[in-house]
Amino acid sequence: MRQIITLLALAGAGVTATAADGIKLNQLGFLPGADKVAVVPDGAARDFSIVRAGSDTVVQSGTLGQATKAPESGDTVRLAHFASLKTPGRYQLRVAGLPDSPPFEISASAYQAVNAAALKAYYFNRAGIALDAAHAGIYARAAGHPDTQVLIHASAASPARPAGSLISSPKGWYDAGDYNKYIVNSGISTYTLLAAYEDFPAYFQAQRLNIPESGNGVPDILNEARWNLDWMLTMQDPADGGVYHKLTNLKFDGMVMPAQATAPRYVVQKTTAAALDFAAVMATASRVYAPYDAALATRMRSAAQQAWRWAQVHPRDYYRQPADVATGEYADNDVSDEQAWAAAELYITTGDNAYYQALHAPEQAMTVSAWSDVRGLAWLSLARHRTTLGAAADQALIASRVDGLAQQLAAAWQQSPYGITLQKKDYVWGSNAVVLNQAMVLLHAYRVNGKRAYLDAAQSGLDYVLGRNAVELSFVTGYGTRSALHPHHRPSVADGIAAPVPGWLVGGPQPGQQDQQGCPQPYPSALPARSYLDHACSYASNEIAINWNAPLVYVSAGLQALTPAAP
Ligand code: G3I
Ligand code: 9MR
After folding, report:
1. How many alpha carbons lie under 13 Å from residue 9 in its C-beta half-sphere?
2. What's the CATH code of the domain at 304?
3. Which residue of 362, 422, 449, 549 has the smallest Cβ count within 10 Å?
């Protein structure tokens, strides 16, 4: 670790870290039938070989691609393509003049463990439950935040629920490294897990996560999502269908364990964005849980419709952070995307054409989703359900929206020096989730039209977060030979265990460095792809979050499920 830090520090001081840099690849490895690429710093070598790990036995050799300067990371690199190596085993990539790459596997189950860990991470972030040793192992901890006595904040007061009155709003996942619960961010996170189940049901039906509900006849991904859905349902005001924006402390907790964080909790302001995100998720959940629990499905569907109706009467109730509240905002002054997404999910679930009309499909663009921009989720869901949609739905439009964005992403991927879909503009707070949400779009397009380039471009997204990046790190805690060690995650900081809670995707490089003042050491570099600090102080590059893990779950399962087996 120290060696990497030193290298990055040099890069930050303006020394170009080319020859000293190592080979960058997915440290977990590859499915036999997958595309396989490594990034090699430019030097004298023109060839590469692949050896059995820890030996000199060459199993394959090849020629490096042309040298290309990568402005986001300030280096010049060549790509090594080795998709034709399909034999399961443990290997290293070798280039003369460089240290061998980290070892990697070719295996038919390459991403099963990381996928399960990425889901189990949600269990580790559950509010209101003790994690017992049988399920949490060394990460067992006492319960925190029961949230059975939550204050109505002045911003959320209503006749039946005046300021200072109490409601019960237990369960749910902590949003991230903090202990608050936010409907907007819960929306995209929970949806993405449900979408993974809708797209890859057989994969998830076979999966066991060892969570308290395991073995109850419901797939564990749905058991885990239920923990948050139960909380979300309590965030709806039964009097009018409106949904509180968040359940929060007034200020962020210190870096303590959940049980030590006992500040009063509030529900804050009903917002249009919260109501619409809630409507979209409950509409989705209603169809997903129907085979397991018909009464729950009915309840969710009606909750979705009530929230939708509230939002139509309150179309511009944007979140305004009250003066006495300082926690995450998830504020957004454009809810046209939330409206479109909710309309799409309600249309898919109910078949009611009025929702399709409310979607205004011809005017809706397709974008890579983020908590603040969910219109793309409407298109992904419509594409998923295309074969069962009614006549109102414009099938050609749905296919062309998904394919249109996939084409753009594939073009960026083909031109990228690192062979990735990330571009300069994508290095934002949570950039690691941007690349995985891009991969999620590509996987949907691949499902629609089977263009192999889309599957390969999606693969590059998972490769990136698992090590094929400028800082040569797996951004998933506990996975890969060199992975993020110090996430901004209160339990990981406060539990006294050296290893961070596993299975979490950290936010990733982005040049904003909004946390620099509170950090005892500088970022190693200002370059977008290297502006990353593996220190617990760094909430702007090294926090974890439920909305970032969700596309990791989707993409790792999707590649497992969709990559053709090697002949
Ligand atoms: O919308 C503007 C855009 O117009 C502008 O071009 C761009 C330039 O930087 O900034 C955009 O705003 C960004 C905003 O996210 C919307 O994406 C801000 O710069 C950026 O600072 C902001 O980051 C958010 C961060 O909270 C700070 O508010 C992250 O997206 C969001 O994921 C993060 O979420 C936090 C929660 O508040 C609290 N819990 C932890 C969680 C993860 O860090
Ligand atoms: O821990 C907080 C993290 O979850 C948020 O994403 C981040 C940005 O809103 O804020 C963190 O809290 C910091 C606060 O903003 C400033 N003082 C230090 C806090 C954490 O150490």
Report:
1. 8
2. 1.50.10.10
3. 362
